[in-house]
Amino acid sequence: MTLLGSISSAWDDFLGCHLRRRKEKRSIEGEKPAAEIKGELPKLEDAPFDLKGRKIIFVLGGPGSGKGTNCTLLKDAFHLTHLSAGDLLRAEVASGSPLGSELNRMMAEGQLVPMDVTIHLLREAMARAPATSNGYLIDGFPRQVDQGKAFERLLHVVPAAVLFFDCSTEVMTQRLLKRGETSGRPDDNMASIKKRFKVFTEQTMPAVEYYRERGMVVSVHSEGKVEDVFARAKEMLMLRIPEWATLADKDHVEVNEA
């Protein structure tokens, strides 16, 4: 079976399991028969996502550029919802589903996963955001130009900005190898790191340039101390979205060096 066929099969199995769980639940509750359930699942094209006035920020940068660390700090500073595409995918892997097993293999090889899988997981996570959230930081997305276009088309939304953490390959490599000593992640090793850099350069950097051409990229130099990078990112976001200056937490946000 080809890679595309394998992924498609895994995705079909995932949706099939989802439908079976809904069927079992509704049968127990005496609700609608299974034949009607499939038709009730909304197609993303027909289901615009209600942002409720919130802003979406895509967060991009090479592996080890500091995306996750700074998203955590920015989340606390502006009271945002931090969604990591990678974490959502890893959670699916941990679930033990057929889709998760295939994703595990792909992630270990440093490959990109199908965009419909990622967008589905992001949409579900966005819908679970608390009412107090002021917006979304979507970390590590989009990985490709087509992913970004599909996200905008399927959810009928446009990001307010793309926060890009600019960092040298040397610094990112050092950070990843250090993290690999304790993270237990299958992709924090030199072989996978090289593949991830190659994928980032060939597939994700064009996405950064795509948004740069649209005037949406906010670039942050992400080398140096954590608190300095965070301060730069926070300032750049407030310049990009002035109303967030009034949302920023007046209290000190604690920054811990990893």
Report what the structure shows.
Strands 2-3-1-4-5 form a five-stranded parallel β-sheet, with helices on both faces. It has a domain at 51-85 and 135-246: P-loop containing nucleotide triphosphate hydrolases (Rossmann fold, 3-Layer(aba) Sandwich). The protein has helices spanning 3-29, 34-40, 67-78, 85-94, 98-108, 115-127, 145-155, 169-183, 190-213, 226-240; strands spanning 55-61, 81-84, 135-139, 161-166, 217-221. The protein has ten helices and five strands. α4 packs across α5 (98-108) and α6 (115-127) crosses α7. By secondary structure, the protein is α/β, with parallel strands linked by helices.
Q: Could you give the topology of this structure?
A:
Elements: H1 3-29, H2 34-40, E1 55-61, H3 67-78, E2 81-84, H4 85-94, H5 98-108, H6 115-127, E3 135-139, H7 145-155, E4 161-166, H8 169-183, H9 190-213, E5 217-221, H10 226-240
Parallel strand pairs: 1-3, 1-4, 2-3, 4-5
Helix pairs in contact: 1-5, 3-10, 4-5, 6-7
Gap between N and C termini: 43 Å
Query: Strand-residue fraction?
Result: 5-15%
Morphology call: globular
- Largest sheet features: 5 strands, parallel
Strand order of the largest sheet: 2-3-1-4-5
Instruction: Let me know the CATH homologous superfamily of the domain at 51-85 and 135-246.
Output: P-loop containing nucleotide triphosphate hydrolases
What is the string of helix and strand elements? HHEHEHHHEHEHHEH
Q: Helix tally?
A: 10
- Rg from C-alpha positions? 19 Å
Helical percentage: 55-70%
Here the CATH topology of the domain at 51-85 and 135-246 equals: Rossmann fold
Spans of at least 5 consecutive residues whose pLDDT stays below 50 are: 18-44
Can you count the beta strands?
5
